[in-house]
Design a protein that fits this description.
four-stranded mixed sheet; about 160 residues; alpha/beta
Length: about 160
């Protein structure tokens, strides 16, 4: 299913993960901004419908899983999702949910466009010259999700390999 409704292509459906901790606050601030941007850009001719999908504490409370299969299936189906911060339980052997999502869905890059907006204070001498895109690799190096207990045989072997 595409992210637009087949019965009304001007009506898009966007899956979202509300998140944990500051996630609900971020979501409550994000939603009206996105809706206002669509309203302004399309003069009310297009609109967004939100489809909540679960991950983190809310998912665990409702399904017994931190990252339910239907959440990943929905993201694959729609080809997009918005996600606020989610909690990964500490000390329970659960890998980072963010790393899992990135690896399972092969989200290789975090793309961060950066540019100056007129009227916004800046410490730079010529902020109007800032127009760049930052590509942050998402699935390897420190984001690979290799997590071993300190002083475990695997951690010691890796440390020795790095030192050589």
């Amino acid at each position: 299913m595409p992210f637009w409704r087949t019965d009304n292509p001007d009506h898009i459906v966007v899956p979202f993960i509300e998140g944990d901790g500051t996630g609900p606050d971020i979501w409550r601030a994000t939603r009206p901004v996105l809706e206002a941007a669509v309203q302004k850009a399309y003069s009310g001719l297009r609109r967004m419908e939100w489809l909540e999908i679960l991950a983190g504490e809310k998912a665990y409370a409702q399904t017994g899983q931190w990252l339910p299969g239907p959440t990943l299936d929905t993201i694959r189906q729609f080809g997009l999702a918005l996600k606020s911060p989610v909690t990964t339980p500490v000390g329970q052997g659960t890998r980072s949910l963010n790393v899992q999502i990135r690896q399972i869905l092969d989200l290789y890059v975090c793309l961060r466009p950066v540019r100056y907006f007129n009227g916004v204070p800046s410490p730079m001498r010529h902020p109007e010259l800032v127009d760049m895109v930052i590509f942050r690799e998402n699935t390897e190096d420190v984001y690979s999700g290799i997590e071993w207990p300190a002083e475990s045989p695997e951690a010691i072997e890796l440390s020795q390999w790095i030192e050589k």
